[in-house]
Structure formats: structure tokens, C-alpha cells
From TrEMBL:
Protein name: Oxidoreductase
Family matches, as Gene3D superfamilies: Dihydrodipicolinate Reductase, domain 2, NAD(P)-binding Rossmann-like Domain
InterPro entries associated with the record: Gfo/Idh/MocA-like_OxRdtase_N, Gfo/Idh/MocA_oxidrdct_glycsds, GFO_IDH_MocA-like_dom, NAD(P)-bd_dom_sf
Superkingdom assignment: Bacteria
Source organism of this protein record: Pullulanibacillus pueri
GO molecular function list: nucleotide binding; oxidoreductase activity
Transmembrane segments: none
Alphabetized UniProt keyword annotations: Oxidoreductase
Annotated GFO/IDH/MocA-like oxidoreductase domain residues: 134-261
Segments forming domain Gfo/Idh/MocA-like oxidoreductase N-terminal: 5-125
């Protein structure tokens, strides 16, 4: 493809600006359209971000009627499903922000639409482009033997968002989906996403619903804390926990216990909003025992100058240009969504539930 890649952005809020800035750095990309349901918002965004070739729309379908190669879906979680499916069915490649959707069924329909259209549906997990995350995957797959226990999940001390993020209908879930999806991706991607079988979970929202801690307490409908025990295929178990707010500095490191060695990861950063995996990796330690002699190895954390957000957007563009597969395929991230779906069901029902990912061969209804 010699001509420039023509991009549209659906949803022009906070994260859309990060997409726009990334695309603007690419000489082979033109942002030609922006859509936002709030009247005038797309035009204001175009002006603010200085996008000379872009036109603003209120209806994403109008944007999709244009000649575009790809779209970034940057709406609140609730609209990922409709806008992504419409984009795919209009023949556009899609980079959808995380989390994939608000329900497992929505995610399944999105993947079916991608399959039916033959277009890319990739999910915006920028930590995948952190070289430390790649190194961790390599260590897990080459040093640990059979990994049987994984503990993951970060804890913000006071890091509760507001607005659409705390509305159950619009966000689907709270901390579990918003930042938990990153922790799940860190752990499960390292293991090539083993299939989840069952989950027993607990969630609460003691802080979000308390006006002392949240200015929109009366509107807070999602969980600010959750913990889950997830049985995975292959005799593995995942202990996953997350918080947006708590009286604690951390929920502990990420651990991988294997038959040959164990791996411990601590998050980077300190402070109320730190301690989540989107905040980076602090230390990496490998533990093993050779002939009764204990040997521990600290793996140097790679300092890098990569803008991982740019890298994720660039990878999407390169995949579009070169006709490659989705860099972070939605089909893989369905497993992540299935776990979050199971957590919400288990927490509501108060007991362990099965996780079942529907048959993707079914046609799009
Ligand atoms: N990858 C990351 O680092 C990261 C960071 C923050 C948010 N996010 C994700 O990005 C998404 C958006 O988050 P945000 O913070 O930008 O939210 P936001 O509320 O700032 O922006 C969302 C925008 O979408 C618009 N919108 C809603 N429905 C729409 C529709 N049907 N068509 C067109 N526009 C529509 C809203 O009017 C709003 O302007 C969320 O899914 C969130 O989880 C990702």
C-alpha cells in the first residue's frame, strides 16, 4: 500500500487524544474523520489536536460511510461492541480500546464480526509493548517448568475514576475490568492464554459508595475491589486480585510458581495511583533451588525509551498496511473477558461458577 493509511477515530474523549497524537507522528497516516455523539465535541477535538484533514461527525455510521482503512474505537466500554461491529461490517480494520466489551457475549459477537469481515480486530493493551513484559513471557516459558500457580493483580490505594467508569451499564464492571484486564493479560499472555474452567470470586465497593472517599458516591455502581480464584486448564490455578482503593500500599507482587523455578514481579512506582500493571514493572526475581543450594537471580529491569502507547498504535497501522494478523487478537482477549464475566457472576451468586466460551463457529446473528 503506497498511499497514506486513512484513519477514523470514534469517541473523542481522553484516550482518543493519545491515539490522535500517536497517529500524528506517522508520516504514512492521515486522520480523516472523528465521531462523537456529543454535538460539537468531535469538531472541538479536531481543532484542539490540530487535525487539518479531519472532519467531525456525531454519528459513527456517517464516519464509517467514508473511505477509511481503519478506525480507533475510543468510546466508553458500552459502545465498543456496536461501533466495532459496525466498523468491521463496513470493511474497516479496528483497534478497540480495553476492555474488549462489557459482556462476554458482546465480545463473542465482535470476534464473529471480525471473522465474517476478514478485518483486523485488535485490542489496545499497550503494556504488551514493554520489553520487560516480553522478557517475562520468555522467562515463564523457558525457566519455570510446569507453572501451576499464578498470583496477579495490582492495587491502587486511592485511584477510583468517576463518570462513565463507575456506571454499571456503561462500564460493565469497575476495577476488575478497568485495570484488572491488564493484570490478567500480563499473567495469561505469559502462559499463552490457557482456557479458564471455573471461578470463585468476591467483589465489594466500600470506598466508591462512601462520600468520604468518592465525590460521586451516590452514582457508584461497580466494584472497587475484587478477588478471584480461577481454575485454568492444565492443572493451573490463578489467584487474581485488584483494587481501585484500599487501606494498604499494595496487594503484593505477581508470582508464577513452576516446577523448575518461581518468578516474582513487583510493580513500579509508589503513591495513591501506583501499583497497577499499567504502571510498569519494578523488579523481576527468579527463584530456584539447585541440588539443595538456594540460588536467587535478580533479572535487570530494562529501562527503555519506547513510547508503548505509540508502539501499540503503530503496530495496528503496520498490520493494516502489510495485511498482517491482528497484533493482539480479540479472539485471544475473549478469555480475559470470560474471566471478568465469570467473576461478576460468581460474586453476585456467591459461589463458584463455570466459565464457558461460546462456540465461535456460530454465525453472527
Ligand atoms: N489504554 C489506555 O491506557 C486507556 C486509558 C484510559 C481509558 N481507556 C479506555 O478508553 C475508553 C474511553 O475512555 P476515555 O477515558 O477516553 O473516556 P471519555 O469519557 O473521556 O471519552 C469517551 C468519548 O466517547 C464518546 N462516545 C460515547 N458513546 C459514543 C458513540 N456511540 N459514538 C461516538 N462517541 C461516543 C463520549 O461522548 C466521549 O467523548 C474506555 O474504554 C477506557 O477503558 C484506555
Amino acid at each position: 500500500m503506497d498511499s497514506k493509511i486513512r484513519i477514523g477515530i470514534i469517541g473523542s474523549g481522553g484516550i482518543a487524544a493519545a491515539h490522535a497524537r500517536a497517529y500524528k507522528k506517522m508520516s504514512d497516516v492521515d486522520i480523516v474523520a472523528v465521531a462523537d455523539i456529543v454535538p460539537g465535541k468531535a469538531d472541538a477535538f479536531i481543532k484542539q489536536l490540530e487535525l487539518p484533514h479531519a472532519k467531525g461527525y456525531e454519528d459513527h455510521q456517517e464516519l464509517l460511510s467514508l473511505d477509511l482503512d481503519g478506525v480507533s474505537v475510543c468510546t466508553p466500554n458500552i459502545a465498543h461492541h456496536r461501533t466495532s461491529i459496525d466498523a468491521l461490517m463496513a470493511g474497516k480494520h479496528v483497534l478497540v480500546e480495553k476492555p474488549l466489551a462489557i459482556t462476554l457475549n458482546q465480545g463473542v459477537e465482535m470476534v464473529q464480526a471480525a471473522k465474517a469481515s476478514g478485518k483486523i480486530l485488535t485490542v489496545g493493551f499497550q503494556p504488551r509493548y514493554d520489553p520487560n513484559m516480553k522478557a517475562i513471557k520468555e522467562l515463564v516459558q523457558t525457566q519455570l517448568g510446569n507453572v501451576y500457580y499464578i498470583q496477579t493483580g495490582g492495587g491502587r490505594r486511592r485511584g477510583m475514576p468517576g463518570g462513565t467508569f463507575i456506571n454499571k451499564d456503561l462500564a460493565g464492571a469497575g476495577a476488575m475490568a478497568d485495570i484488572g484486564c491488564y493484570s490478567l493479560d500480563l499473567a495469561l499472555n505469559a502462559l499463552d492464554y490457557p482456557k479458564p474452567l471455573t471461578v470463585s470470586a468476591y467483589t465489594s465497593n466500600h470506598f466508591g459508595t462512601n462520600p468520604t472517599y468518592h465525590p460521586e458516591a451516590e452514582k457508584f455502581e461497580v466494584e472497587d475491589f475484587g478477588v478471584a480464584l480461577v481454575r485454568l486448564e492444565g492443572g493451573k490455578v490463578l489467584n487474581f486480585k485488584i483494587s481501585w482503593a484500599m487501606h494498604m500500599d499494595s496487594l503484593g507482587p505477581t508470582l508464577f510458581l513452576g516446577t523448575e523455578a518461581g518468578l516474582k514481579l513487583t510493580p513500579a512506582g509508589k503513591g495513591p495511583w501506583s501499583g497497577v500493571w499499567d504502571g510498569g514493572i519494578g523488579t523481576i526475581d527468579l527463584f530456584h533451588d539447585i541440588n539443595g543450594k538456594h540460588v536467587d537471580t535478580s533479572i535487570p529491569v530494562q529501562s527503555h525509551s519506547l513510547d508503548i502507547f505509540y508502539e501499540k498504535v503503530r503496530d495496528f497501522v503496520v498490520a493494516v498496511k502489510e495485511g498482517k494478523e491482528a497484533p493482539i487478537p480479540a479472539e485471544q482477549i475473549l478469555v480475559n473477558q470470560a474471566i471478568i464475566d465469570g467473576i461478576l457472576r460468581s460474586s453476585q451468586e456467591g459461589h463458584e461458577v463455570d466459565i464457558h466460551i461460546p462456540n465461535l463457529a456460530e454465525t453472527l446473528s
